[in-house]
Amino acid sequence: VLELRRDGRLDDLSVLVEPRAHLNDENARGELAGGLVRRIKELVGVTCSVEIVEIGRIERSIGKARRVIDLRGK
Predict the structure, then answer these.
(1) How far apart are CA 36 and CA 15, in angstroms?
(2) How many angstroms separate the CA atoms of 35 and 5, rounded?
């Protein structure tokens, strides 16, 4: 899931990711998140933050998936 926020004049992108298996080790979570940050920057050219969330936290879609959540004030 992508979350967009506004920090002053700049937009901020956060990527929420569920791992395939439970990761209880904070070091493993940090390494996974860091690798994803680098890969996204390399492939897309966008700087973002990545948060590894617990399995089941991201809402499953019944119909159309909500993949981008815009939290910027209009």
Answers:
(1) 9
(2) 22
